[in-house]
Amino acid sequence: MVTEESSVVASAAKTAKFWLSRGGFKATVFGTEKRGQVHLKFDGTTKEINDFFEKVKPQLIDTTKDITAKMKARGGGLLGVELVDKTTYLENYYQLDCRFETFDAMGANFINSCLEQLAKTIQILANGYRPFVDSKRCMDIVMSILSNYTPDCIVRVQVCCPISELKENEAMSSKQLAQRFFDAVQIANISKERAVTHNKGIMNGIDAVVIATANDSRAIEANAHAYACKYGSYKSLSDVSLENGTFRFWMEIPLALGTVGGVTKLHPLSKLSMELLGNPTAKTLMKIIASVGLAQNFAAVRSLITTGIQKGHMKMHLNNILCQLGATELEQKEIIDYFKSHTISFRAVETQLRLIREVRESD
């Protein structure tokens, strides 16, 4: 997590410790299916292209057998191909919607190779299809590409404990803390202004591990934010319930990850990260990364509804400022003590350090 600010790493670690004694994080993978599409235009009727597709579908699937043989032997590969009518949204526009299982590989190259082969084959078959030739119908392949939106590649992670165990200090009762936490998540469900920042906090944890394991952080980000809109408006990726005296906090998120292929096992830092994680399968890595995301979200929301986000952040940031200013160990101790009761800013720290040095020089 070295790509993150110190406060992010500290809060994730603190949250992990908090939940370790309360049952830990429970994660379940509901699916690992990925998708890709061949995007095409056809100037005939929907019935004409449907009839053609049903006739050539077996040939389409068969034409990918050399590409999918190895993956199919493991129980995966190309799972299905369907023609989707999109003409309501764009004139003459259709998709070949394809489902894939790639197991521990992220599978981008595999999926794109299959899609390009399907596109090539359907174009050849359409050009030689007698009803199209006779009626002068035209099919044009626009593009073939995997989709980074994977709503069928889902992991759920949750934590729960008695509401009475949420309290860590005397400033607020456990019941009040739980209610504020509930309200904060509901606000993220009705306010996109809050939801974006709320979900960004989740990604603070997720992106760090994704990058460390040489997975595609841009794809994961785009996927997560698209999934947050699945009900028609942008909402919180996490949710909370307070029932029967129990606090339950959970999240469902799509994570298309790989633990083999690409540079995952080739880049020395990625290889080290995988070893630190126990060389997980793709499913286990989904659980780990989702848990880090939920931990970060719990820490951020808890800070917001108690001390405020700046107290912990600036406390960690103070150490960074002191290192930047070259403060000695003794100077650091004095300044840390001073700012326990004063507002932290770079200028304030710089001024206080100068005063300490001036006093020492005068002595």
TrEMBL record:
* GO terms, molecular function: hydroxymethylglutaryl-CoA reductase (NADPH) activity
Name the domain of life this protein comes from.
Eukaryota
Q: Which SUPFAM superfamilies match?
A: NAD-binding domain of HMG-CoA reductase, Substrate-binding domain of HMG-CoA reductase
Q: What are the protein's UniProt keywords? A: Oxidoreductase
Question: Quick one: which pathway?
Answer: Metabolic intermediate biosynthesis; (R)-mevalonate biosynthesis; (R)-mevalonate from acetyl-CoA: step 3/3
Alphabetized InterPro entries for the sequence: HMG_CoA_Rdtase, HMG_CoA_Rdtase_cat_sf, HMG_CoA_Rdtase_NAD(P)-bd_sf, HMG_CoA_Rdtase_sub-bd_dom_sf
The Gene Ontology biological process terms listed for this entry are:
coenzyme A metabolic process
Can you say what this protein is called?
Answer: 3-hydroxy-3-methylglutaryl coenzyme A reductase
